[in-house]
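Sequence dictates fold. Next comes a concrete instance:
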Amino acid sequence: MVVDIHSEFGVELVLATPYIYWLHTQNKLDSVNVAKDMKPFYYFTNNVIEKYNHRTIDNAAAGLNSLPNNWLHHNTIDKFEKDYGELTKDEQDKANGVLDYTKWTPPPLKEFYQNNRFIFDKEIVVINNSFNLEKGGYPTRYFSIECLYEMFTHLTEKGYKVIYRRPKVNSLPTEDQNEQGSFKLGEIKAQVEGIGLIDDHELTKYFEDVILFDDLLESNSDLSYNTLQCMLYANCNKFISYVGGAGILCSYFDGKNIMWLSRGKETRKDYFSKDSYYHKLSNCEIVIVRDKTETYPHSIKNYFELLKTIKDTF
């Protein structure tokens, strides 16, 4: 079997990667064609061609229709033999976030990538952030400067070392249409008392125990972007992320993953039930924190519950 895929990053990790690893375990995998720097997720085979220099949000063009699961948010044909729109409300709730797992085995990334290279003097917490167009609209899944300042302060005062990752435009190995269009947005910026106007990357410099992922990438130039992610995450048991690609990747590495949910189909009822793919990527404990969008305008982020959960948990 030859698998050819270049979908959105998180979509590939959920729909394609576990299928490809399942094919490998069944001795049915011939080769894999993927986007640049995705080979680290297919360490189990030498027959990987990094064929694509871009990704696409067009599911058909991305090759998803060749997979047992071709839609991220449910597989109602497998579960109910009906389309989502034909289901009752109760059936829809049971279908949300649930896939066909008969040919679906996530590779043990944590086991493979654990290492002695990235051992720090303190326990690490990985924070993933984003600032991209979402379905062509303004971003909602991001942590503001104020939120990050409070996160960094709490975690470093509790004795953790923080690794902060938020890709800037054109910094990823490959990008989809939303990521490519995000250059218009600029950076996450705010006025900080005593400092002035700074962005989130600059904010890390004001905390002794906060490390910018980009700095680690620069000082470990022998590693690719995704290899570094896997090696860092394999040595980490505490993650803070958002529901999406970064949250999916963190959920591959056991430990505990606090994920902020602000919008999208993931807000549907029971999406994060025990049968959701999020809970099946590894033994990771998923902690969902929902933005209170019913009481706050969409342009105003309510981070209160997120910060409270972080402080109560880490």
